[in-house]
Amino acid sequence: MLKIFQRLRDAFGHGPEYYNGNLIQYFDDLFKQLENKLIDPQKAKLKVNELFATNQDLKTFFLNSYCDTKKNLKIIGSKVRLFNRLRFGIISLEENEYEPIHYHNGFISFQIVLAGKCILNEFDKISVKGKQVVFKPYENQLLNSDDVMLNFSKFRDIHGFGAIDGPVKILSIGKYYGLFGKFKFSINNRWYLDMDKKKQINKEFLQTFLIEEEEAYKKYSKIENFS
Ligand SMILES: [Fe+2]
């Protein structure tokens, strides 16, 4: 523990408050600005990108302190409040491993690539009726270190991402809504889309069906299986 605090003090001259307080405060403010439409989502992404690109020590801190894991998602910190919860986690993907396309309910998150190359597929959720989902696709993106993903109900709330040319480490900073951030009910609260069954329904929108998590991972957890 002392070693971590020492590293932070060296990196920021702020002492341990930076991670325990300042970084939480920073994302708390940014999430609130997004909720209240006081900042454009693209601008918010750029802000976070700049924070990490100009503080390489911050990135090194997370990589050195928390990334020695094979777990797909390692929770590294949470702040639970009465009506929401902030969660810091590290997502690790092996080369060609893919997180199947999904959306979350009651959730907003930034994901920062700490190391590696990541392909990102993003969509806007237009409607869900029963198991049927209508969504709008965007061009595939290639993310490098310091690049940022953002997803929430008003911006690219459906996504899938994977590691190419080697493993990827991602810092995920999420805010969960609901009583105590619903921390007792689920970790991820994810809903997966069956992309093999997608069809174009008009110029802009696609349609497909929800599938169970187990099936989603069976079909779509490798990049080569995904088109
Ligand atoms: Fe997600």
What does this structure look like?
The protein has helices spanning 2-12, 17-35, 41-53, 56-66, 213-220, and strands at residues 73-80, 84-93, 98-104, 107-129, 132-137, 141-143, 148-151, 158-177, 190-193, 199-200, 206-211. The chain is of the alpha+beta class and 227 residues long. The chain has a single domain, classed as Jelly Rolls (Sandwich), CATH 2.60.120.10. It has a six-stranded antiparallel beta barrel with strand order 3-8-4-5-11-9, surrounded by four helices. Helix 1 (2-12) runs antiparallel to helix 4 (56-66). The protein is globular and about 45 Å long. The relative contact order is 0.18. The model is unreliable at 7-18 (pLDDT under 50). The structure holds fe (ii) ion. Fe (ii) ion (FE2) is lined by residues 102, 104, 159.
Quick summary:
With 227 residues, the chain is α+β, with helices and mostly antiparallel strands. 27% of the residues lie in helices and 41% in strands.
Q: Distance between the terminal alpha carbons, to the nearest Å?
A: 44 Å
Number of helices: 5
Class of secondary structure makeup: alpha+beta
Query: Looking at this structure, what is the CATH superfamily?
Result: Jelly Rolls
Helix content: 25-40%
Order of strands, main sheet, comes to 3-8-4-5-11-9
Rounded radius of gyration (Å): 18 Å
Named once each, the bound ligands are: fe (ii) ion
CATH topology: Jelly Rolls
Q: Poorly predicted ranges (pLDDT <50, ≥5 residues)? A: 7-18
Task: Sketch the topology as an H/E string, one letter per element.
Answer: HHHHEEEEEEEEEEEH
Shape: globular
CATH architecture: Sandwich
**Number of domain units:** 1
Largest sheet: 6 strands, antiparallel, barrel
In terms of DSSP E residues, the strand content is 35-45%
Mean pLDDT: 85
Can you tell me the CATH class? Answer: Mainly Beta
> Using DSSP, what is the number of strands?
11
